[in-house]
């Protein structure tokens, strides 16, 4: 029996989807976020960084959503339901698996932080300066890069049903979290291929079962 250490409203949703997709039995251990939205210290008893997701199976503890998906693919995926076996599909799978946390999520986290900084308590005369600096970073650095990322995803999904090509894979699971995060703050009207992909994701039985157990991401 797997234990999925799940922080509410978090990336662990990806792993619940993968476990459901592979029909593996698991128990969800839920952790509530602290008032500042960070993880409770109790998660550090499971892994030193205390970030979710963390998956445990007997004496094995795996952190990092990409590494967890790879672990499940290597050890519990005889039918290649998570990791495709064709050369081209595998290349796409690998690219998007890494892209999600390497190129996409850092921009979303930066955006969240730079939007949050000016709302924090500070001397009143500093606030407008903090706001101006943060807006400058958002407009000149984060948004242009985020727009490039979204355009690249849209282009890929215009000609690929799933991120790795024809079949749903771990790459869709990994990409689902940042796309849901974007979709939670803006409409995907400008990105019809991404919107159709998200609709297909939500139609998956395994996805619905996962959401039934751990919920779907919603903005803080
Ligand atoms: N790259 C890691 C990121 C893990 C991560 O930052 N998880 C967030 C939840 S979405 C977390 O635990 N945040 C709480 C905190 O930073 O205190 C992964 O993909 O697993």
From TrEMBL:
CDD domains, alphabetized: GST_C_GTT1_like, GST_N_GTT1_like
Any single Pfam family the record assigns to this protein: GST_C
N-terminal signal peptide: none
Domain GST N-terminal, chain residue ranges per copy: 1-80
Record-stated family: Belongs to the GST superfamily.
Name this polypeptide is given: Glutathione S-transferase
Organism: Marinomonas ostreistagni
